[in-house]
Amino acid sequence: MSKLILRACASCAAAITLMAATPVAAQPLGAFSWQLQPHCNVVTLTVTQLGSTYRLEGTDNLCGAAESASAQGVAFLNPAGNVGFGLTIVAPGAAPIHVAATISPTSLSGSWQDDAGNGGTFAFNGAAAGTLRPTSNQTRVAVAHTDWRVRSGADPVTFTLFSDGTHFRRTSTGASYLVLGGSVPVTVNGRQQQLLGLELCYEASASAVLNYVEINTTTHTAATPTGRTQRLGDLTERTDATCRYYALATPYILTPSDSANAFISVNWTVASATFELGRATWVLQPTTSSGVVLDPIPDEPEPMDGDPASTAARPGGR
């Protein structure tokens, strides 16, 4: 039998040593992290030896979201000499995804794939920028960069539309809000949707700092709105260029009366510096509840000759 030992060392990030040993039950070997590149998800797993296999228990950080996903599985030695992983990851909202991975016994990195058709590098201690790994039953609605606008016409902000992004410039230093339009479906394939978050693609800098992101929902049951509910507010100042996922702390189930919007604040420390926005993608997930089906609008009956409606529809009547 073989025993798998993961150990840190001074000259390298980590190494795997395979050595003959009599297996003992439930030997904790430590906690280790892998990034599912090209996505920003990082799984951190505690490895425990159980005979010739290894129990994996931990979390997927969902790219730094307020709530992580549980991750559990098994690791094992393959006859080819590499190490296989089988993981089940359950995100908030109970959407399971199955991940298979193999890693090298020397670098601890390798490759991964999931049952939603995603895959890439399984990078030991990886921390590269990337987008959120999609799941098999997510609904993702991409809103084009052309749907961003300045909140107030009084703001001294101009914009230029390009085929791959929108450039915003402020003629003086200071902060201004930008607003995301577009539509968010509340029902897909007969299932009510819950809002999980928003993936935002942007290019900031020290001269044009992204300093606030806000996600709201608004309920309209009459001509007068009932007010907005803030679902996320992030005050982190960012000067990078990436697509970043902003996850709601608690998924929100959308009703037929709901809509969603996003506001961001950009602080220009240098007048006329460029802040660029690309796509923004709403991330939703179906619930087990059937969506509310609105009554169809009845067809207007065909007017008969002599009916006032038939003559009123024609200029000058008959």
Question: If you had to describe this structure to a student in words, what would you say it looks like?
Answer:
This protein has 318 residues and is an all-beta fold. The chain has 2 domains: 2-124, Lipocalin (Beta Barrel); 139-290, Jelly Rolls. It is built from 1 helix and 22 strands. The protein has one helix at residues 308-312, and strands spanning 2-7, 15-20, 25-37, 42-50, 53-60, 69-77, 83-91, 95-103, 110-114, 119-124, 139-143, 148-150, 157-162, 165-170, 174-180, 187-188, 191-203, 208-219, 228-234, 241-253, 258-268, 274-290. It has an 8-stranded antiparallel beta barrel. Strands 11, 13, 14, 16, 17, 20 and 22 form a 7-stranded antiparallel β-sheet that branches. β1 (2-7) and β2 (15-20) form a beta hairpin. It is globular and about 70 Å long. The protein starts with a strand and ends in a 6-residue tail after the last helix.
Give the SSE map.
Elements: E1 2-7, E2 15-20, E3 25-37, E4 42-50, E5 53-60, E6 69-77, E7 83-91, E8 95-103, E9 110-114, E10 119-124, E11 139-143, E12 148-150, E13 157-162, E14 165-170, E15 174-180, E16 187-188, E17 191-203, E18 208-219, E19 228-234, E20 241-253, E21 258-268, E22 274-290, H1 308-312
Please compute the radius of gyration using only Cα atoms. 26 Å
Please state how the strands of the largest beta sheet are arranged side by side. Answer: 3-4-5-6-7-8-9-10
Shape: globular
CATH C-level label of the largest domain = Mainly Beta
CATH topology of the largest domain: Jelly Rolls
| Percentage of residues assigned to helices | under 10%
Poorly predicted runs are: 1-5, 7-22, 307-318
